[in-house]
Amino acid sequence: MNTLTPLAQDYLSRFDTAIGSLPGHQSSLVTTARQTARDIFARQDFPNKRVEEWRFTNLASLTKGIGDDIAEVPSASASIETPHVMTFVNGRFDAGKSSLDGLPDGIRLTSLAAELDAGNDSLINNSADHRAVVALNTAFMEDGYVLDVAANITLDQPLRVRFVSASGSVQNARHMRNIIRLGDGSSLTLLEEHTAEDGHSYFANPMTDITLEDGANFRHYKLQDENLVAYHLANTDCLLKDNATYENFSLAVGAKLSRNELTTTIVGAGATSILNGAYLMRGQQHSDTTTVTNHLVPENDSRQVYKGVLDDDSRGVFQGKIHIAENAQQVSGDQLSKALLLSDRATMACKPELQIYADDVKCSHGATSGELDEDALFYLQSRGIDAVTARKMLIEAFLADAMDEISDEAVKVYFSGIATAWLQKA
Length: 426
Hints:
alpha/beta
């Protein structure tokens, strides 16, 4: 039997004591789900490089135990104003920093901990998930948001959920569980932010479970701007029914090591999955984007565009799998990954994958990585533009294609401002 990593041993040693104080502990269903997840995690431990899906991302620095490293706290480089904000501080809902009054009828945005403690245990899916990081989240989930939208509801302005790591916490891990359901024909935008107001090292392990009913349209934008000694391992699962649309855009600029794993499962005709994002890394940062799109029925489509900018000794990873089931005819799936290497020490690993078991489909995938175009740099400088400005102009143009995939204008401006601020430090 393999010896468990120190961090896994620490979690397992604390489980029996912790389970009695975690939300929903009075529910046998929730307790059983936690215990089952604990057993799955105990058998697997944290993933290592021998696990195919994790061979490009080494968690050794995390699994040895979260240390006492301190980083400079990221400063706000851009801002956005939204009328409805839900804030979690150090893994717990903070009503004083939230503004949820005036939500339209038919939209409920509540705390998972409050829902579980009130006996709403039906929120927890009791089927076992054998992904180790997700199992760890289920075993120790402490809070998160529950977004329930009734049928035929449209909200024009984005909802905003903030996860903030701040000073004064005795916990160095955040296991957040988020549950989203949009009813038939509903349309909504959600901006989810993960940021730090403290420089201490911590581990963020959010899991988000999304169900989109027939004709629902969900625009889901995520900012990952943790401090530079933090670890961020996120999983998002989305189920799409007939004519549903899921648009996800993730912008990653923070964390020492981050992984954003998205799984969309399309079970409805006419459904569309749109996964896009950008990651901007420098120093020794590591960013991993892993996507799995499952087309299980005919007549639907998916597309993905991810852009990365890597400087210094940073490392990027993109793994994208499109799976088309045997009976899923008349499906289209497109995938594109591009990385810009600003340093000869920066590296990019890419693994696009198509699993096609139907014959009437249209699929494509592409992956490139390289340096700035020297001819384009020369052209701009020949027009009187200095080298530094020319370099930034080309990087901005490279990222613009990805940012243009954001359909909400306010979020596009917000994310573009963050990217521009990052470039000013390049």
